[in-house]
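To whoever is on call:

I kicked off a structure prediction for a single chain this morning and the downstream step that reads the tokens threw a length-mismatch warning. I double-checked the sequence; it's 391 residues and nothing unusual in it as far as I can see. Pasting both halves so you can look.
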Amino acid sequence: MATIDQMLQHHLNCSSTVDPPLLDHTDTCSPCQCRGFFATEHKELRLDDCRFQRYMRLTVSQFDDLLVRIGDRISRLDTNYRLSISAAERLSICLRYLATGDSFRTIANSFRVGVSTVSSIVPDVATAIWDCLVEEFMAVPTTEEWRAIAVQFEERWNFPLCCGALDGKHVVIKSPANSGSQYFNYKGTFSLVLLAVVDAQYCFRLIDVGGYGRTIDGGSLSNSAFGQALKSGTLQLPADLPLPGADHQGLQPHVFVADEAFPQRKNLMRPFPGRNLPRERRIFNYRLSRARLVVENAFGILSSQWRMYRRAIEVHPEVAEKCVKATCVLHNFLRKTTQTTVVSIPAGEVEPLPDLGRIAANNSAREAIRVREAFTSYFSAEGTVPWQDTV
């Protein structure tokens, strides 16, 4: 495996006094390329960790760590006709695209490489990031890990037996050629659907990317591997337990919390529909909404960190899917390699409850209704919190 210094010095050692050509840049390691960002500014940028992080979204140590993990996967061999672009520069090009969402031509002009080079580097490096990080930072949780997530949800968000918050995000893309209305969503844009399960610390535990924008969240769930595993009971969730201090209600299953766009199931909890609800149901909706905020916050952090989500992604849907998966696993990588403290939202800062007037078309099973009623009674009795009546 090449060392970090060897990777970084590949282009930094290049120098030339020849003026850059006026024509379009070639894919060779030309004098023009050696005057690009990586050759002229990257080394200096590494001396200021804050500036480096603003530019690459990773600290210098995180960048080096990631480079070691994927360096061999993205390295290319030199030939008699051209010098290869180093792994460090290839990673920088991909990270810069994910961090800004700029066009491939803008990235190419900055790094002094060809547009076709950028168009091949971005999906290759994004795929390598996903493949090399997913096992460590986004593996499917085991039974013990699901149990640990449930403990954290109870401690931080006062929702027991919760294994995660579920929601979908529309990732806006440029209208694909000959796609008809498949990607056209209810917001009037073209999009891919990112379906995600988030734990109590804002980390993505399971994701499904690539659903058509026209599909509603409930349909995306049914078509996803997570939805099928949840329905078939193969997620290896912990055994049923009584709610804390409510043994008289019997054993209850571990659940995921979601909004009203998803169906009510035994292991999937959605709010009560309607507005003029009884006190117990209003409290349940508040407690569920408070726990579900983690997935909304995670999407907000993701789009704030990786600005490609702030504009329409102008690449093929297959490439957009690779980039989305890369940013999600990088999100976890950053959160687990950065010393941060996650705290619960104080009562006075909880967002108002969403409009629950829309009723999703689903037939709730009796068991699913029973489980929700058990949680509803618990939140108004043994599981009450001091501020829930004032929100």
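Update from on-call: the warning came from a stale cache, not from the record. Cleared it. Sanity check on the structure: The longest strand covers residues 162-172.
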